[in-house]
UniProtKB/TrEMBL annotation:
Entry similarity comment: Belongs to the UPF0223 family.
Pfam families per UniProt: UPF0223 (PF05256)
InterPro entries membership: BH2638-like_sf (IPR023324), UPF0223 (IPR007920)
Protein name: UPF0223 protein H5S09_04640
Superkingdom field: Bacteria
Length: 97
């Protein structure tokens, strides 16, 4: 798995369950870049993530914070999962390489 040296952008007002849903989304993004991931898993994680973060502005802010610390792009992974017809998606390259 990831040998990450960064933290996930979280809102401390979220419940433990909500934090787990957001973290699951960020882990799905990591997997998409590192090992590949089933596109349906990404879509399921994103659906749960949107229950916690319904605001597009907040989603973009969290995505930017995550990208800044990890180099992984939330938006790109979600878009690839939504547009792909392949069962598995694998992202190439990191933004901060």
């Amino acid at each position: 798995m990831s040998s990450q040296s960064y933290s996930y952008p979280l809102d401390l007002s979220w419940t433990n369950k909500e934090m787990e849903q957001v973290i699951a989304m960020f882990r799905a993004v990591e997997d998409a870049y590192e090992v590949g991931i089933d596109r349906n898993k990404v879509l399921d994680c994103y659906k749960a993530f949107k229950q916690v973060v319904p605001s597009k502005a907040e989603e973009k802010q969290l995505g930017r914070e995550f990208e800044k610390s990890s180099g992984y792009v939330l938006y790109r992974v979600v878009k690839a999962a939504q547009e792909s017809t392949d069962k598995k998606i694998k992202m190439v390259g990191k933004n901060n390489d």
